[in-house]
Amino acid sequence: MKAVQYREIGGRPEVVEVEDPQPGPGQVLLDVTAAGLCHSDEYVMGLPEEEYVYGLPLTLGHEGAGTVAALGEGVTGVEVGDSVVVYGPWGCGRCVRCSAGQENYCERAAELGIAPPGLGAPGAMAERMLVDDARHLVPIGDLDPVAAAPLTDAGLTPYHAIKRSLPKLGAGSTAVVIGVGGLGHVAVQILSALSGARVVALDIGDDKLELARRVGAAEALKSSPEAVEPVKEMTRGRGADVVLDFVGAQATLDLAPQLVRVGGDLTVVGITAGAPTLKVGFGTVPYEVSTLVPYWGSRDELVEVVELAQRGQISVHTERFSLDEAPEAYRRLHEGSLTGRGVVVP
User: Which end of the chain has a smaller Cβ tally under 10 Å, C or N?
Assistant: First the structure.
């Protein structure tokens, strides 16, 4: 079968032929119907050799949707033909965090060598993929797989980040979304669906700002220090109740503390190479600001995200590519010319 792999440090993704996987005991084989591209892939492929820990060759794709093709011995809970998405942050299933559905914070994954698909285990950027356990599959019914696959990260990650801040996002509140890419444009919609906040979107691209307006942002501003004054004016000098940084570059980490109010939440979701740093301490952020660096989301939250999509409350803006076009899609992701989420359709 065809797969898109990262094969050498510093190289670019390649379309190659690999052996068809076969499900062992407890495993589920999917015919992949869609796989999303993510900036995390670019981050991984940009790591120097001494920091790279994901194994080579690596079949990419941690946002996956598929149809159940075969079941390994002992598998229950899914049937051949089911249309599903894959919950990506696999854990041991037994520690305290996993027992609460929070496999994204599994206490033993590293110790046991458990890795997410596309980030250590073979991913969804292929014609077929193996899923280690049926509990990592969420049914999507008749939802379009191309729209559903990015929900597993581009939907789940902002949902998880926003959910913890909902007590601060009542009527009259303001939320700032920095970076209106694959995750950020979904965050705008989630904020509109779940909160009473006025949403202000910041980005450096005019196309991204236009997308932000289309999906519900009340204001869309160029991301720069010049955005601080208008945000303060909108909030009567206080600043935003919640600031979500979906870029994570040094420029945005320097900007975010200037936008958040006393007692607000500052959440850094984006990942950028080069070890950028958020300065937290007396005089560097407003008093009692809560800062958080979340990772992905829980299984029950993915079920909730799928429900939002099925009800038409959120949708992912996508560009479709074939497997053979995947290297070009990654080139465009690298240069920043994708609007929304790139999705590979085998």
Answer: N
